[in-house]
Amino acid sequence: xxxxxxxxxxxxxxxxxxxxxxxxxxxxxxxxxxxxxxxxxxxxxxxxxxxxxxxxxxxxxxxxxxxxxxxxxxxxxxxxxxxxxxxxxxxxxxxxxxxxxxxxxxxxxxxxxxxxxxxxxxxxxxxxxxxxxxxxxxxxxxxxxxxxxxxxxxxxxxxxxxxxxxxxxxxxxxxxxxxxxxxxxxxxxxxxxxxxxxxxxxxxxxxxxxxxxxxxxxxxxxxxxxxxxxxxxxxxxxxxxxxxxxxxxxxxxxxxxxxxxxxxxxxxxxxxxxxxxxxxxxxxxxxxxxxxxxxxxxxxxxxxxxxxxxxxxxxxxxxxxxxxxxxxxxxxxxxxxxxxxxxxxxxxxxxxxxxxxxxxxxxxxxxxxxxxxxxxxxxxxxxxxxxxxxxxxxxxxxxxxxxxxxxxxxxxxxxxxxxxxxxxxxxxxxxxxxxxxx
Length: 438
Hints:
- This protein has 2 domains: 6-233, Sandwich (Immunoglobulin-like), CATH 2.60.40.680; 250-431, Sandwich (Immunoglobulin-like), CATH 2.60.40.
- 11% of the residues lie in helices and 32% in strands.
- The protein has helices at 6-12, 37-41, 58-63, 190-200, 239-243, 260-265, 393-401; strands spanning 48-51, 53-56, 66-74, 83-91, 95-96, 107-108, 116-121, 130-138, 147-155, 165-171, 181-183, 223-227, 250-253, 255-259, 268-276, 285-293, 297-298, 309-310, 318-323, 333-341, 350-358, 368-374, 384-386, 426-431.
- Strands 2, 4, 7, 8, 10, 11 and 12 form a 7-stranded mixed β-sheet that branches. Strands 14, 16, 19, 20, 22, 23 and 24 form a 7-stranded mixed β-sheet that branches. Strands 1, 3, 5, 6 and 9 form a 5-stranded antiparallel β-sheet that branches.
């Protein structure tokens, strides 16, 4: 629970005075105008603070017990604020690293890069059964920006165990001497400050946490480190982090239903892969395996490799293909591998590729020929979908966990041709001549 009620935050905000900074500063009744929640909600600037929510395996926790926590600001605040004071509380079972002066070692981020940053330990955090510190940022002008405000490390305990959750909280505090604050250099934009402390951080009064697997609905914590080995895919990135990714790439594969007469007369069928999900100009390098029913024959180029044509999403990239001989070993499927490369983030959205299959001579009504995008990884290489700097690993993980169908995290919902829970991404299905093909 937050140390002070949000009502205190509302009551402390005044227009025309400096009560937000020091209660000893006199503000006459004629100068005061107490702002209400409706005033905060009408603020043109709506600052929001996000705190790391990390889910890691027990093996990762034991191997790398020092975890980086990021406190990030958004809401169009760049060049709109110049003073910040926040209390950061964290689970008492954990500890932070200290700087040479004995205070928590907090590092500036983009949001505070043009400001002075000071930190001091908060011994009163023990009253809330937590550890904590106070961090302040200041500048002569409105030098505060959107982006990472600061980072700090949390050291997990030696007896960390499966199922542990270590909460992290931004806590609004006030007393007779001072208030936490988030203001412009002239200290006039009290509505912006009020919005941050009532809507921009979680609290159990005006902005309760919506709840997830690790924190209950209605709680006030802003972040956590959770130990849950079942939710961590290969590579050490948690699915919680992946699902919060700004880019959410997804690939759609053709699902074509044709009549038996069309199948016999026109056995060569084109398949399209289409990419979308806020990735325009954000990716460059990709590698993915395309598997298809082994009864199909892929149309080859003059070099004997699948004849894959570029689309709008890949028109500025180099594209190459190679047959995947190992595909024959897996459930009656054949396959090939497609890669893209570019010096910059030239990958776009839209149609990625087209290629053609030839239906078998004995095609029959009721045949379904599945097509699948499969993630493959071994000791030497892994499939990928990433930017030129190879920094958007969450984007890559999102594609292969949520952006293609798979049995574990994104099972196919099912239709008349593929059962629910399958992992296939597309198909060519054969109906009778008098069927309704849509």
